[in-house]
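Record pair follows.
FIRST:
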Amino acid sequence: MKQLTYRILLNKEPEGGYTVNVPSLPGCITYGDNLDHAIEMAKEAIEMYIESLVEHGEAVPDESNTLEYSLTLTATA
C-alpha cells in the first residue's frame, strides 16, 4: 500500500474544540473536541475521502512533494 502525506489545518473554535481542514482535498473538513480528537477525526475523514475517490476512479492527490513554510509579518495600519 502506498503511503500518502496530507497537511491539515487546525483552527481553534471560540466555543471550544478544533475545526480541521485538509487543503489538498476540497471539502474535506471535520471537527474534534480537542487536538488529539481532531487529528483522529482528520485521519478518518481523509481515509473516507480517498476511498470515495478510488471508488469513482478519480486521481488521489498527495502532498509528499509539497514544502511548507510559515511567515510572520508585522503590519502597520
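SECOND:
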Amino acid sequence: MIILVMGVVGAGKTTVGQLLAREIEFAFFDADDFHPQANREKLARGIPLTDEDRTPWLITLAQQIQQWQNSGQNVVLACSALKARYRAVLGGPALIVIYLKGTMALLQERLDRRRGHFADSHILMSQLEDLEVPTDGLTVDITQPPAALVATIRQVIGR
C-alpha cells in the first residue's frame, strides 16, 4: 500500500507523513529527497519549478513507487503532487491520496517560521496556482494538530 501525503509547501507533508508512517508501521519517504540537485538549487533561489523540471523527478518517483509495490512494501510518501497528471504518473488509482489543505495565510505563517529547508515562501504562490485539488482522495484541514490529522487519516483508511 502506498499512501501519498500531498499539498503545497508548508502544508506539513513531512510532519504528518512521518507521524502517520510511525503509527501504522509503514516506511516513510520524502519526495524532496529524490529531486535532482538542479531542482533543489532552483527552489532554494525561490524559482518555481516548471513541468520540464519536474518530469525527470516524477519519473524517478514513479519507478521507485513501482519497486515498492512490486516488493509489497507499505510506504507513506510525502510529495507535493500538485497536478492531477503528476499523480497519474506516480500511480494514479493505486495510491491512497491524502491532501493537506490550508489557507494561504496559515501556509505563509508556517513558512515564515521555517528554517533550513530548500523550499520556502517564495514558491508558495506558484504552487497554489499550480495546485489541482484531488477529487479522489481524502482532504484534511491543516488547522488541526498533526496528531489529530493522523487520527482522521487512520480512521478513513482503516489503520
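COMMENT: The CA atoms of residues 5 and 68 lie 16 Å apart.
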